[in-house]
Structure formats: C-alpha cells, structure tokens
Design a protein that fits this description.
The protein is about 65% helix and about 0% strand. It has about 240 residues and is mostly helical. The chain has one domain (about 1-235).
C-alpha cells in the first residue's frame, strides 16, 4: 500500500513540475511538445531500467545505478542552463513563489521515515533525507505564501532556506550511495541499506525529482544573486 501511495504522490509532483517548467514556458508549441517528449522519454527509461532490475546493486558496476541516473540528469540540466539561454531565461522568468512553493511537496520525506520504521531503509540515510525534506517543505509553505502576497521575507532568509534545501538533497544522494549494498563504496553497512531506492516507485526520486529540485534551487540562487538591495521587490516577479 505504501508503494502505491508513493507512486501516486511521485506522479502528481512530476506532473506539477512539468506543467510549471514546460507548460508555463513562453516557447513555441513545437518546442513545448519536444520538451514534454524528452521528459517523458527520460522517465520511461528510468522506469524501464528499474523494472528490469537494471538498478539493482552491482547490476551496472560499482556505482549504485540510481546515482548514475541522478548524475546524468544533473549534468544534462546544467548543460542546458549554461548553454541554452532560452532554457535559463524560462526558468528565471518563473515567479519566485512558484519556485519556492514546489518544494512544499518535499514534506513527503515522511515516506523515508516510514520505510525506516518498516525495516526497508537504513540509517542515517532515512533520517537525514526524511527530516531534511520535511523541514525544507514545511518552511517553503510560508515563504512561498509571503512571496506570492508581496510580503517578502529577507533575501537572506530565502538564501538560508535555499542553501539548506540544496545541502539536504546532496547529502541524501551521498548517504544513499554510501549505504547501497553490493558496491565497494558502501560505508554504512547495517540494515537493508538503500536497495529500495533502486526499485519502483522509489527510483523516480533520485533519478528524476531530486535533479529537478536541484535545478529549482539553482534558479532561486541565481535570482537572489542578481537581486540588488535597492530592488527587493524584484523577487516577487
């Protein structure tokens, strides 16, 4: 039952991501259709690999499979950000409230704590990823609401939240890799490790959702970096 609920939740968040990042973009219909196609192909590829057992520990070498999927999408996202100005401008044109608000769904980090309680996920990954996501998601709610209403918090408050959310994601990936059975880099050896994160529906988190959230954090950081003290309300647009 937990896996079914997680699959529905991950699908809903992914759809919202695609609507926000692609559907709301000011691009030609053909370009929008192409972007949707690329996104669908990547998700389908990750699902197919996981369903066929391609992400099981040791199946594709010493590095955990989901980490390779994560790395590939992060590299692709960064390449698009720095060498495709239209892509970067589209993200920078999104309302800051939306960029912050999409992180509210990270309160679903409670799933990691439940998996730990069920004996399907080990410490310290479960607690770090779970509580880190929950805190990031809970704080995102008032920050997004205040930003949308024009009652902007200090830029340093947003920057601190953004840094915490980014660190949480990178820490989760690192701890996940160091807890994965069947790899020589496993450091945390007690319990089941993080094998469940290489199975459906959980594999969608490191291979799709985490890279997208990192892209959002990069966009927020860029907005803050370009903001001048004389124009604080520029964050609202």
């Amino acid at each position: 039952m937990l896996d079914v609920i997680a699959a529905l939740a991950a699908s809903a968040v992914l759809v919202i991501f695609l609507i926000m990042l692609i559907g709301a973009a000011s691009v030609r219909p053909a370009a929008r259709a192409y972007a949707y196609g690329v996104a669908a192909a990547w998700v389908a590829l990750m699902i197919a690999i996981a369903a066929s057992g391609g992400f099981t520990p040791g199946a594709i070498g010493p590095v955990p499979g989901p980490v390779l999927g994560f790395g590939a999408l992060v590299i692709g996202g960064l390449a698009a950000w720095f060498w495709w100005p239209a892509f970067r401008d589209t993200l920078l044109g999104l309302p800051l409230s939306a960029l912050i608000g999409i992180n509210a769904f990270r309160i679903a980090g409670v799933f990691f704590l439940i998996l730990y309680a069920q004996g399907r996920l080990s410490a310290p990954f479960a607690q770090s990823a779970g509580w880190g996501d929950i805190i990031t998601g809970l704080v995102a709610i008032p920050l997004a609401a205040m930003t949308a209403a024009g009652r902007l918090p200090s830029r340093w408050v947003i920057a601190a939240w953004n840094a915490f959310g980014t660190l949480d994601l990178f820490t989760a990936i690192l701890l996940g890799a160091l807890s994965s059975p069947g790899t020589p880099i496993r450091f945390f050896t007690e319990g089941p490790g993080t094998s469940v994160m290489a199975t459906l529906p959980w594999v969608i988190i490191p291979t799709v959702l985490v890279p997208l959230w990192l892209l959002v954090h990069l966009t927020v950081a860029w907005r803050l970096r370009s903001l001048t003290a004389e124009h604080p309300l520029a964050l609202a647009t």
